[in-house]
Amino acid sequence: KTTLDYFMLKHNRFAEATMTVAELRVLLEKNLSSQKKGGLLSISGVQVNITCNKEGKAIVTLVDGKGKFWPDARKVKVVTTDFVALGGDGGLGVDEGRVVVDEGDPVREHLVRGFEKRKGQTLKGDDPSLFSTSAPRMKNAHQVQARCAAPSEKR
C-alpha cells in the first residue's frame, strides 16, 4: 500500500458532472493543445479524434464505438476526481453546482480493491482487456503523442 499511498492522495473522491459534448470537446481541445502544460486528460467510453492545426491547437471530435459522431448538444456524464471536477489542474470548466461528489470510499480504496482482485497477475500494456490497438481511446492522425506539437516543435 505504500506505493499506492505515494501515487494517489488518500482523500480524493469520485465526482461526476453532466456536460454537453460541446463542453467536453472544448475541455479536451484545451488540454490537448500545445499551449497546455501539466497532466493529460484521459477518457473512456468514446473515441477522441484529434486534428492539430498549424498553431498547435487541437480540434476534437467524439465518436462512439460504431463510428457515429456525437452531436454537440448531447448530454454526457463525466466521472473524475473531486479535485479535477472542482477546478484543480484546470478543472472541467463547469460551475460547482453541477458537480456531485461521491461521499463513499476514496478513489484510492477502489484502486486497492481492483488490484487485490488481480493479485498475483501481471499487468501488461498489450493485454487486450486493458488496451486495444484497433480501437484507441485517443487518435491523433498527425503525431504519435496525443498532445499537439507547438509550431516550433514541428519537423
Word description of this protein:
This protein has 155 residues and is an alpha+beta fold. The protein has helices at residues 2-7, 21-32, 82-85, 107-117, and strands spanning 14-20, 47-52, 58-63, 75-81, 99-101, 138-140. The strands form 2 sheets. Strands 4-1-5 form a 3-stranded antiparallel beta sheet. It has a 3-stranded mixed beta sheet with strand order 3-2-6, covered by helices on one side. A hairpin with a 5-residue loop joins strand 2 and strand 3. The longest helix is centred in the first third of the chain and has 12 residues, at 21-32. The chain starts with a helix and ends in a 15-residue tail after the last strand.
Poorly predicted regions: none
Q: Can you give the mean pLDDT?
A: 81
Integer-rounded radius of gyration: 17 Å
- What's the number of helices? 4
User: Which term fits the overall shape?
Assistant: globular
Strand arrangement across the biggest beta sheet: 4-1-5
Secondary structure: number of strands: 6
- Distance between the amino and carboxyl termini: 44 Å
The largest sheet, given as strand count, sense and whether it forms a barrel, is: 3 strands, antiparallel
Summarize the amount of helix as a percent range: 10-25%
Q: Can you write the helix and strand succession as a string? A: HEHEEEHEHE
Would you tell me the structural class of the helices and strands? alpha+beta
Instruction: Give the amount of beta strand, in percent.
Output: 15-25%
